[in-house]
Write a structure and sequence with these properties.
This protein is of the alpha+beta class. It has twelve helices and 22 strands. The structure holds adenosine monophosphate and glycine.
Length: 424
């Protein structure tokens, strides 16, 4: 089979890596890809939002299956464009990707179908938002409705901070159209867990759990980022929680979307928080997480391509997902200054030390090839160094040892990925 993967980050590198393990796959293309992906796939210089060019490429090259990694094209309707042209594609249609594309939609869905989540109000104007703020307790959480590169969530400790937040989102339009409406919601406390699940519109198959580290600095301080590292499985995700979530959250979400005439095919990312009142949904995404894919896919024993095909054909009930017992931990190597301002274009050394290993991987996030074939930094998150080992502690030690082998100017990483493991 010929596969096309859409995206250019560490998640897409992990998807390409998983696809390459399938005996069915003879050729992988990735648009637009990056320097690491180009070692296992042919990178094609077409942007992820150029739907017609991507579809034409898939037709001309007889691509059998396209897998969309990123949120923007999914929310923008890439799957509908491919399907209209008779191309096989894995991901939700536009009317289902709204689960991620509009936080107001997802909150209203959860409320309507009794899926546990924080209490909330949707404000359609700044005036309405200021009015709602009069009756909330603090801290309060403000969320821009649309996609905002993971930065559209503000946790406000005081009424002044909340007013500033409303102004940024709805008046200054800091996140553009994502701020046409906003969600004002109750602040929840508890441990956060990410669960990715394959869905075929009817059946949902959760993958192994993961735990992200979103803040830029050690000790969970500093700004929110796309994710500075994570690990799988989460030791806090017990069988009891799994049973509860399968019934009240995962299956309930797929059923709710089907009832709304928006069957969800693809991957649903459940951002969960374990509160004193039980697990609740913090957010949905309509795709694999980044860097969740980098720790979940290396543990998956089931053929990724088989699962994607079964999801497209509505046959997920025939699949049993299997994961290795090994733990996996990933440390993101970023450019100093991320997520605000950073320099790029520096040569990276040490990447060759991963060659031939099946327990340590380096997934490229923001890299490109220089004129002489050298690999250069080309983004905020540069690499995701990932290790598999029998226990989380061993995986952590290995991932950090491996991370130290990779060097570039202005390299920055958190040194405490997996710190909660020590609390157990
Ligand atoms: P989201 O993009 O919705 O996942 O939000 C990003 C981060 O903000 C989450 O991972 C949480 O750490 C935090 N967050 C979102 N909603 C809430 C909430 N209701 N209570 C507490 N923290 C939240
Ligand atoms: N790591 C969080 C996300 O992919 O949204």
């Amino acid at each position: 089979m010929k596969i096309l993967i859409i995206g250019s980050g560490g998640r897409e590198h992990a998807l390409a890596f998983a696809a390459a393990k399938s005996p069915k796959v003879e050729k992988i293309y990735c648009a637009p890809g990056n320097a690491g992906i180009s070692e296992i796939a042919e990178c094609v210089a077409i942007g992820a939002m150029e739907f017609d060019r991507l579809a034409a490429f898939a037709e001309e090259n007889q691509v059998d299956l396209t897998i969309v990694g990123m949120d923007d094209p999914l929310v923008g309707g890439i799957v509908d464009v491919f399907e209209e042209r008779g191309l096989r594609v894995f991901g939700p249609r536009k009317n289902a990707a709204i689960l991620e594309g509009s936080k107001a939609f997802s909150k209203d869905l959860m409320q309507k179908y009794g899926i546990p989540t924080a209490s909330y109000k949707v404000a359609h104007s700044a005036e309405e938002a200021y009015r709602f703020l009069k009756d909330v307790s603090y801290p309060v959480v403000l969320k821009a409705d649309g996609l905002a590169l993971g930065k559209g969530v503000l946790i406000c400790a005081t009424p002044e901070e909340a007013s500033d937040g409303v102004r940024e989102i709805m008046e200054d339009r800091k996140f553009g159209e994502a701020g046409n409406q906003m969600v004002i919601e109750e602040f929840l406390t508890g441990r956060e867990i990410s669960v990715l699940a394959f869905a075929d519109g009817r059946t949902i198959l959760p993958m192994a759990s993961a735990m992200d580290h979103k803040r830029a600095g050690d000790g969970d301080t500093g700004l929110n980022t796309g994710g500075m590292g994570n690990f799988s499985p989460s030791p806090f995700y017990t069988d009891e929680i799994d049973r509860y979530c399968k019934e009240h959250i995962y299956q309930a979400t797929v059923d709710a979307m089907a009832s709304e005439g928006r069957p969800f095919k693809g991957v649903i990312f459940f951002g969960l928080i374990l509160t004193e009142d039980g697990p609740k949904v913090l957010e949905y995404n309509a795709r694999f997480g980044d860097p969740e894919a980098q720790v979940v896919l290396p543990r998956m024993k089931t053929d990724l391509i088989d699962v994607c095909e079964a999801a497209i054909d509505g046959r997920l009930d025939e699949i049993t997902l299997e994961f290795s017992d090994d733990a996996c931990l990933c440390v993101v190597l970023a450019s100093d200054g991320y997520p605000v301002q950073y320099e790029k274009g520096f040569p990276i050394s040490g990447l060759d030390t991963f060659a031939g290993r099946d327990d340590e991987f380096v997934f490229h996030a923001g890299t490109k090839k220089g004129e002489n074939g050298e690999i250069l930094t080309n983004g905020g998150r540069v690499l995701a160094v990932t290790a598999l080992a029998p226990t989380l502690k061993e995986a952590r030690a290995k991932a950090y040892e491996a991370a130290e082998r990779v060097t570039f100017a202005n390299r920055y990483m958190r040194h405490d990925i997996g710190h909660v493991i020590d609390e157990i």
